[in-house]
Amino acid sequence: MSRHQIAQAWHLVGGVNWIFFILIFPMQFLSYYAVGQVMFSYLHSKGNLRSMPRVKMARIALELNFVNHIIPVPSIAGFSYLGWTLSPHGVGAGRATMAQIIRFVTMFISFVCLIFVSVLFLTFDQGFSRVTFIISAFFILATIISMAILIYLLNDYKRMVNVSGWLTRQINRITKFITFGRRRSLIKKHDVDKFISELHQDYVEIKQEKKIIIKPFLWATLANGLDVALIFITFLALGFFVNPATLFVAYGISSFIAIFAATPGGSGIYEAIMITFLASAGVSADKAIAGTLLARVTLFAGTIIFGYVFYQSTINKNGRIDKSNHV
Do residues 302 and 21 touch, judged by C-beta distance below 8 A? Predict the structure, then answer.
């Protein structure tokens, strides 16, 4: 159905303004750095990683993004990889997980605030769009429900133990079935209990000292702004101005749904939602396709090329550490 628009989009890509396009790469690095600081500013407040150079933090954030882009179900991959990467630096798995939870929570909350501002801006700028209102309302509602479920679980230690115990049994049951009984368990209850204890303890400390969230929230707001700026610059490089407020809403809903997609980096799902929303918001289909795909391909390429080098270095280094400890 979109064959004609895709053909037009291909011709549009051929007319890229390279002066604008080159700006994507330093902006992408700043985005990685800001995302990393959402987590690391929280870890700093807990006394972790104080001696780690800032360049190293940006590198870890790039590695994390690389893992999320190449491994299916990115949200799960990212949680496990960060815990493994930070373990040689004295950060427990529970605290590393809490740092990522803080990242998702603060970025969602800041995005909700930015979408509120975007909707108000669109209302005064070009009239209130019904599609924009419905999608914005859905995103805000989904965020509120997600946060409510998360707080409900974290607020009670016994509830967390019961849920984690049930998940552990189900995962081990599936493992036993897939391996035809050769491996009876994938996760040990003792490790899960230790992980849950660390996670709940950090949550209790956050409740007692809420100002810990301020810095991560500010970094999250900057990270969200930079991510949308990357897409905005891509459209400018193609010679089109797309209202940043529209891009905020499109990026927010696409990113939210891509978290749950069982594809590397949410590929396919993210692009389809972004293009569909931009087209429904008044951007011509060929421009929406050209801008979205050019931005995604460019950011994917930068993430994979540079991320793989650092990722492989970390695998080799931490692998040697693990082997020496084992011996």
Answer: no
Q: Whose CA is closest to 88, among 326, 322, 324?
A: 322
From the list 22, 132, 87, the residue with the least C-alpha distance to 314 is 87
Its pTM surpasses 0.90: no
Longest dimension (CA), the chain: 68
Q: CA torsion 221→227→229→230, rounded to 10°?
A: 160
Domain parsing of the chain, residue ranges: 3-125+213-318
Closest CA to 250 of 108, 132, 147, 74: 132
- Give the integer Cα–Cα distance in Å for 288 and 235: 9
Q: What is the pLDDT along the chain (327 residues), one digit of tens a residue?
A: 556 656 666 666 677 888 888 888 888 888 888 988 998 898 888 888 888 888 888 888 888 888 877 765 545 566 778 888 888 888 887 788 888 888 888 888 888 788 777 777 766 665 556 666 676 677 777 777 877 887 888 888 888 888 888 888 888 888 788 887 777 777 777 777 777 887 777 778 778 877 888 899 999 999 999 989 989 998 888 888 888 888 888 887 787 777 766 676 677 788 888 888 888 777 888 888 888 888 888 888 888 888 888 888 888 877 654 444 433
- CA 196/CA 198 separation, integer angstroms: 6
What is the DSSP track for 103-153? HHHHHHHHHHHHHHHHHHHHHHHH---HHHHHHHHHHHHHHHHHHHHHHHH
> If you compute the radius of gyration of the chain from its CA atoms, what whole number of angstroms results?
21
Tokens 């190449």 belong to: 70
Vertex 165: Cα angle to 162 and 169 (nearest 5): 140
| Contact of 61 with 31, CB cutoff 8 Å | no
Judge contact between 221 and 41, C-beta under 8 A. Answer: no
Percentage helix, strand, coil for the chain under 3-state DSSP, each rounded to 5: 85, 0, 15
Token match 């590397």: residue? 264
